[in-house]
Amino acid sequence: MALFRRSSNEPAPLDGVDLVLADLDGVVYKGPDAIPHAVDSLNAVAETTRVGYITNNASRTDATVAEHLNDLGLHVQPSDVVTSPQAAVRLLAQHVPAGANILVVGGEGLVDEVQKAGFAVTRSADDGPAAVIQGFSPEIGWADLAEASFALQGRTDSERPWIATNTDWTIPVARGIAPGNGTLVSAVHTAVRRLPLVAGKPERAIFDEAVARFGAQKPLFIGDRLDTDILGANRAGIDSVLVLTGIDRGKQLLAAGADSRPTYILRDLRGLDEPYPEVRTARNGAVSVREATVAIEGNDVRIVAEGADPVDLLRAACAAIWNSGRAIYGLEVPERLYS
């Protein structure tokens, strides 16, 4: 399975891990279809390590997500799936009385969690809801967003809480990248001039719920986005993998801020049990990963040696830029490093 087995001193990302948490969109699947190598790799992980799944997508229930994953060839129970609606409802329960009437803007997954927690569901601001909870659904339209706006206008956070499952700006689907829940939340924000409480990534509540549910001591999180997945894992103190099969690629990695840099960068999930290459820094600041070497000379990021693996070159370039403490816009970066 491994591409490189050169040194037993190079630990794999899985070494010492007792729980692997995987994002879904862009990591396990894109639209209805599995991402190459994801299913086989995660099934192999599950033979020795607990695997759980975290998703910001609020349009489906945990049971529906588990069914989809099983259809792809994984072996998943609904309890293995941690959803942003679950985290959002726990947050909701901290702000409103038990059994309160809640205006739900979202799909089946969000409605199901609200009802399981004992709250009443309404779709109309005229019903005087105690709070508004909002999550993604492809069926959400203007009328739904208007009801949320009507319910929130003239109300403070303490008078009528507004909770969003997540604020992802985009979501990967089979045909490409589409607007995510963040765009829908932004529409309501524009109307009411308020910001919601957010339960999902990059907030740590969803990570804390997952770690507590599985009783993990050393979890590893896999994501495809820096601004939600990796930022959230860092906030929760969890080691992370950025896998290059989803939203963020080389260009975003090179520009990543200190709070959204992953522990590991992998081409795909086969890399989970492969020795992860050492990052070596020379006295002059040049960084090498295996045969790839990148240096910064003045304002120029220079490729000294490309090496055999483009991902090693990207790893070296990230380390060189991140170690420099300089902003990416102040550097000349060869397109080869992120194309």
At a glance:
This protein has 10 helices and 19 strands.
Please characterize this protein's 3D structure:
It is a single chain. By secondary structure, the protein is of the alpha/beta class. It has three domains: 19-56 and 202-273, 3-Layer(aba) Sandwich (Rossmann fold), CATH 3.40.50.1000; 85-198, HAD superfamily/HAD-like (Rossmann fold); 279-337, no CATH class. Helix content is 30%, strand content 22%. The protein is built from ten helices and 19 strands. It has helices at residues 38-46, 62-72, 84-93, 108-116, 142-152, 181-192, 205-214, 226-235, 250-254, 310-324, and strands spanning 19-23, 29-30, 33-34, 50-55, 81-83, 101-105, 120-122, 131-134, 162-164, 170-173, 176-179, 197-198, 219-223, 239-243, 264-266, 279-281, 287-289, 292-297, 300-305. A six-stranded parallel beta sheet has the order 5-4-1-13-14-15. A hairpin with a 2-residue loop joins strand 17 and strand 18. The longest helix has 15 residues, at 310-324.
